[in-house]
Design brief:
The structure holds two protein chains of two kinds. By secondary structure, chain A is mostly helical. Chain A has twelve helices and two strands, in the order ααββαααααααααα. In chain A, α3 packs across α11 and α4 runs parallel beside α7. Chain B is of the alpha/beta class. Classes of the chains: A mainly alpha, B alpha/beta.
């Protein structure tokens, strides 16, 4: 039995490489968890495509005789919709209540017994999920769209890397927002209320139902600077369809980064507060 | 420095609960789940931590592991402050909650183990060696490839035990590890924990309602009630304290005309119209009592009944107060 137990204390020195290895392993587990549900993935892809057609026809109907609306032409709108459909499942705008359920049932205790900060391990797992979604959920609508619509293809070489960065930041930011919504369970136990609010707000204000550029300019400014919502979906899509010149693209991604940092800091703060008042009763 | 791995002084935990007192009125009440626990556990000790439902066992364990913040008091585990240094402590303790899972629901058991190696930063060789031992002792091979959600309770619990040990913890906390398990699985878990305890370098803290777990495994028994330690010592000491004695049951061919008086072995009770006499063995030995009874006449059979730890513990719980079921203490705010 001797080898089952420790003879030396494990290293307690923080080590960046070990940290990255741990992060990578948790990310990998997040990927594999989602990869086990193949039928759910197929069902998601089909639903996603159907809504793609719906949204695309509705948006194209708004384009006037001039051939453009709110700074988008027909091709840009089609790209906006179809890439948006793919990106929707990558950033996972409408995630589940897994963390909230763990808090309610007390299973969250086992998250706290790991030698990894809960926000870090949940983020790593969510990145794994996003990686799986990028392969399985992002590509189909992006490939289906051009078969039926004339889409806009980016013309500047810089657009694609900026878009990739913007999409990754959107994933992190959206994780943070969903974490915060779920974390209300520490105080409320039941997160259905906050969840409904989040679903409504994010659908409208992230640019899913219509591009936010349709709104008056002052309102756009308020939304972009005052809320994280446009940074979740609208920004990466605007970057991709080259709605703005390069410097504005970079500025928008900078704003996204600021929001991501702010929200992640808020996650850590909320987690710390929550742990102090955590109650896990009954076994 | 002392070799105590767990040191608790005046550990307290209070919860606030809201109680409905009228149609709309709700009253806040403070509930004391743990009320001044002092405890020292030495390295390599196997400690049984028992108490009735709501006595504060799990809450204490959660404070030892840094999941819950104590309301008052001091606690050190492996020389660390559990809440403030929780992630460092996590590398050095293992925890099994019988009613919760720490495995990844959707992943095969083997994948969970592989992931734990990275989470706890265990060198590959040490991980492989520990896993090999656990696979052998707990018979894991048949279900290593099965997703955790499809495991039976017994299989899952064996997986949980392995998961808690793969990083070679100095202290293993087990909160009702045999709850809901069948006899065979219980034996497997007990046998495994016994092996672990005999190796001597892992400290074991075990809470359970199954006193057989404690009798087989733990040299030291701590009984808590109302959040307080009411007994701390060996099982033998508990029997001594509560005067539980071995009983000698004598079956007779015919009842005696009057109950015999034997020095050092008072008559405990009579059964079956005097066909069965039960004596409490105090100072008298078995041989003396049997000889005396044989001298009196038709002795057919004799058996010895060891004191039942469950009886003693039930008496201990009941002596706490005239309460029903839950022993948490309420006091209005």
């Amino acid at each position: 039995m001797g080898s089952v137990t420790a003879t030396v204390a494990p290293p307690t020195v923080p080590n960046v490489i070990l940290w990255f290895r741990t992060f990578k392993a948790i990310t990998g587990s997040g990927f594999r968890r989602y990869a086990t549900y193949r039928q759910a993935s197929v069902a998601g892809v089909v639903t996603n495509a159907v809504f793609g057609f719906l949204r695309c026809y509705v948006l194209l109907a708004t384009v006037g005789a001039a051939g453009s609306v709110a700074g988008y032409d027909r091709g840009q709108l089609a790209t906006f919709v179809w890439v948006g459909q793919g990106l929707l499942s990558v950033v996972l705008l409408w995630g589940g209540t897994e963390l909230a359920d763990r808090i309610r049932t007390g299973d969250v205790a086992s998250d706290l017994l790991r030698p990894v900060h809960p926000v870090t391990s949940h983020l790593a797992a969510d990145l794994g999920r996003a990686g799986h979604a990028a392969l399985i959920r992002f590509l189909p609508p992006v490939l289906v769209g051009p078969l039926f619509f004339e889409v806009y293809v980016p013309r500047r070489w810089s657009t694609l890397p900026i878009f990739v960065l913007s999409a990754v930041v959107a994933v992190v930011l959206c994780f943070g927002c969903r974490f915060l919504v779920n974390a209300t369970a520490y105080w409320l136990q039941d997160v259905r209320g906050p969840m409904v609010l989040w679903t409504l707000a994010s659908g409208v204000l992230a640019g899913l139902y219509f591009p936010l550029r349709f709104l008056p300019e002052w309102l756009q400014l308020v939304l972009w600077c005052g809320t994280p919502f446009p940074s979740l979906l609208q920004t990466p899509l605007d970057v991709l369809v080259e709605r703005d010149p390069t410097d504005v693209q970079v500025g928008l991604v900078g704003l996204q980064l600021a929001w991501a940092a702010l929200i992640l800091a808020a996650c850590r703060l909320v987690q710390r507060r929550a742990e102090r008042r955590l109650v896990i009763q009954g076994g | 420095m002392s070799d105590d791995v767990i040191v608790a002084d005046g550990l307290r935990k209070e919860f606030t609960v809201r109680v409905r007192t009228g149609r709309l009125r709700r009253e806040k009440r403070r509930v004391t789940a743990v009320d001044g626990v002092d405890l020292r556990v030495a390295r390599g000790e196997m400690l049984g931590y028992i108490g009735p439902n709501g006595a504060g066992k799990s809450t204490t364990l959660k404070m030892f592991t840094g999941v819950l913040t104590p309301s008052a008091g001091e606690v050190r585990v492996c020389g660390l402050r559990p809440v403030a240094q929780r992630t460092r402590l996590a590398l050095r303790v293992g925890v099994v909650f019988g009613q919760r899972s720490q495995l990844w629901w959707d992943l095969p058991l083997g994948d969970s183990f592989a992931l734990l190696r990275h989470v706890y930063r265990v060198p590959a060789a040490a991980h492989a060696a520990r896993l090999r031992r656990c696979r052998g002792l707990l018979d894991l091979d048949a279900f290593l490839g099965t997703p955790v959600r499809q495991l039976s309770l017994g299989q899952r619990m064996r997986g949980e035990l392995t998961a808690a040990l793969l990083h070679g913890p100095e202290v293993l906390f087990l909160d009702e590890p045999t709850i809901g398990l069948d006899v065979v699985s219980k034996q497997a878990v007990r046998g495994f924990l016994g092996e672990l305890g005999r190796a001597g370098d892992t400290t074991l803290v075990l809470t359970t309602h199954d006193l057989a777990d404690i009798e087989r495994l733990c040299g030291r028994l701590v009984v808590v009630d109302h959040g307080r330690v009411v007994h701390d010592g060996s099982i033998a000491a508990l029997h001594e304290r509560y005067g539980s004695r071995r009983l000698l049951v004598a079956d007779l061919d015919a009842p005696l005309p009057e109950p015999p008086v034997l020095p050092g072995a008072p008559l405990h009770r009579q059964e079956a119209d005097g066909h069965r006499l039960v004596f409490a063995l105090e100072s008298a030995g078995v041989a003396e009592v049997v000889a005396a009874l044989a001298g009196l006449g038709a002795l057919r059979d004799v058996s010895i009944v060891e004191p039942d730890v469950e009886d003693v513990v039930a008496r201990l719980y009941r002596s706490g107060s005239g309460r029903d079921g839950d022993s948490r203490r309420d006091h209005g705010d």
